[in-house]
Amino acid sequence: MALALASMVNAICAGPSATAAIQRSEYVRLNDTKLYLLIRGANRTSPVLLWLHGGPGGAERPLFRYFNGKLEQHFTVAYWDQRGAGRSFDPKASPRDLTIARHLADRDGIIDHLRSTLHRDKVILAGHSWGAALGLLYGHAHPNKVAAVVAVNPLISTRKQREAEFQFVCGEAARRGDRKAVRATEKIGARPNWSTDQVLAMEKLDQKYGGVFHKNPVRAWIVLRAMFSGIIWPWEIPG
């Protein structure tokens, strides 16, 4: 993914002219809150790419770095924990503030901060799921600030997604004679307004038949490797 994205965007953004790396961790204060931002890249003059995580509330910064860390060789990558997620979580904040309009306003503030501090006219948006949907909305509203929008598994229609998932699980359960799964799908039902518990239960059944991952990962091991992948060990520091 990293190499394909680099090739595509090189036609839009100018290539790097220096090799000074950048590694910065900060909180950006926007009106009533502060939002966490991690910036990493092998070349601080390379195009700026803002990662937009899924969810809402799915701050997956370590996993992004684990699976897509090579992007930092081609871009200055900014990992932003959206309002209410990850290091931007505020237990005193009202859930009523977690609106699409608020997320888009936060994104505008983060992008203006990146454009100002990194001296860029435009940034690239790479969003996953919910983040991709917000990226498309923001790119449409602010084309003067966005060089490209890359949508990874974008959230388009939750209803159609759930309908397709339900039909897939029902079909596989019947084909395999999995009576336990058949009973579970009957209990959940084909209605679109599933509860959170029902969504998670259906996803578990979906994954049982390979509908989420081709090969189910060992998540604890991935998280541990992702957490330690960003550490600069003492023997790696230039003398």
Summarize the structure.
The protein has 239 residues and is α/β, with parallel strands linked by helices. It folds into two domains: 2-156, Rossmann fold, CATH 3.40.50.1820; 157-234, no CATH class. The protein has eight helices and six strands; from the N terminus they run αβββαβαβαβαααα.
Structurally, the number of domains stands at: 2
Largest sheet: 6 strands, mixed
Distance between the termini: 34 Å
**Number of DSSP strands?**
6
**The CATH architecture of the largest domain:** 3-Layer(aba) Sandwich
The strand order across the widest sheet is: 1-2-4-3-5-6
Low-pLDDT segments = 14-18, 231-239
Rg from Cα: 20 Å
User: SSE order in H/E notation?
Assistant: HEEEHEHEHEHHHH
- SS class: alpha/beta
Top CATH class of the largest domain: Alpha Beta
Layout of secondary structure:
Elements: H1 2-10, E1 22-30, E2 33-41, E3 48-52, H2 61-68, E4 76-80, H3 100-117, E5 123-128, H4 130-141, E6 146-152, H5 158-176, H6 179-188, H7 196-208, H8 219-229
In words, what does this structure look like?
- The chain folds into two domains: 2-156, Alpha/Beta hydrolase fold, catalytic domain (Rossmann fold, 3-Layer(aba) Sandwich), CATH 3.40.50; 157-234, no CATH class.
- The longest helix has 19 residues, at 158-176.
- With 239 residues, it is α/β, with parallel strands linked by helices.
- The protein has eight helices and six strands; from the N terminus they run H-E-E-E-H-E-H-E-H-E-H-H-H-H.
- Helices cover 42% and strands 17% of the residues.
- The model is unreliable at 14-18 and 231-239 (pLDDT under 50).
- The chain is elongated.
- Strand 5 (123-128), helix 4 (130-141) and strand 6 (146-152) form a beta-alpha-beta unit.
- Strands 1-2-4-3-5-6 form a six-stranded mixed sheet.
